[in-house]
Amino acid sequence: MIALRGYRVAAVVALSVSLSACAGRIVPPGTSAHYPSRGEAQPQPKPQPRPRPGGSSVQPSGPSVSRVADGPVRIVAATPMPATPVVAIPGAASAAQAGILAGPPVAALPITEPQAEAARAAFLLSCPGLMRRTDGSGLTQGADWQAACQAAASVPRGGARDFFARYFEAVQVGDGRSLATGYYEPEIAGSRDRRSGYEVPIYARPRDLIDVDLGAFTTDLKGKKIRGKVQGTNLVPYDDRTAIEQGSLEGRAPILAWGADPVEVFFLQIQGSGRLRLPDGGIMRIGYDTQNGRDYTGIGALMKSRGLLGPGQTSMQGIVAWLHDHPEEGRAIMRENKSFVFFRELNGAPQGAMGYAVTGQVSVAADPKFVPLGAPVFLSMDRQDATGLWVAQDTGGAIKGSNRFDTFWGAGDTARAVAGGMSARGTAFLLLPVGTLARAGITAPVGTVGAIPQP
Questions:
Q1: Residue 376 bridge partners (DSSP)
Q2: Is the pTM of this model over 0.70?
Q3: What span, in angstroms and rounded, lies between the C-alpha atoms of 225 and 139?
Q4: Where residue 1 falls among pLDDT bands split at 50, 70, 90?
């Protein structure tokens, strides 16, 4: 991903970690979960000035939110809010199937005003897509978001927390138990032309790569897509990583640029987007275009299972160091991931799966079958830096299932360090339009403000 639809570092950092079935039941009508009154005694942060949109209610990106300071990364532990225990429903394919429960009042969530303002701007940017897209989670319809989207354009300075408390209600999907990893926008050495020291091709979309929507052939396969190439009269799987690295795409795919380090190019594909630092000091920005249709394999899980990673080596940085120290074995391991990402040149900020700019320390990737893309999400995790309000603006091949998130940290050394070591667990609450719970026959908790009626 960034357009961040690649597979990114999350699959590597998490190694073989995967969530158990995060499913649950819908609370019976007329009942609601009980939560202690959190946040009432917390001192409110001073309102922060924010730029106002000029001539348009939509800002290209939100103000920055400083979850971490620049410099050495220090992990600060936190205590997650408890989720409501539920009986799991194995095999749930969407949030609606997993079941939802009422979360705490949004006003009681420990959200700072700067966090809320940054999330408001990202939410507003996502509103057109949020109202237009079909919500694969089964929880909302486009019209449900209209009131909140209209209000988001005119929130007064210092009023972002109140905006979220007034227009949203917190919803727990399934058991609510969450895993969050991290991704970032890498910067690696690259060149627009092949030259000494720059020998690793970075490909654009191949001319013979075909996307097939299987749902167009039978309703039984609705939502299923495959990629491949035509061979004679047959559609066959597209070239895998080994074949591509051995030159199979010569004459079939444009080369956007050339990388200096095969390991860095491999991780650029996992991140799905990044910046190439050119020999003349310039920057070329590239983003995810498509993928070869082959299954993704996280090499971190392979390396861990084979005993190749020692203590302190299970972060992205540790994996990269091992691959550099063992180039032949490393090449073979990387080729076990048959998935291969193709890029396009970007002229502006990195974009998420919705087609909108993503913001470091604000945007998060999620599975659209469990989270409406564009929806705010509150993560209460065992790490302070991952805790707080985010906006789901992206997806990822390794980000699957309920309550599975990938936090975006922007660019630079600090972003790389935080994302490379991010693995936080806790509780997730979706922030959905007021009325979502009532439609499911669930009583909202005492303290929910409710939306102001729209004329």
A1: 391
A2: yes
A3: 23
A4: low
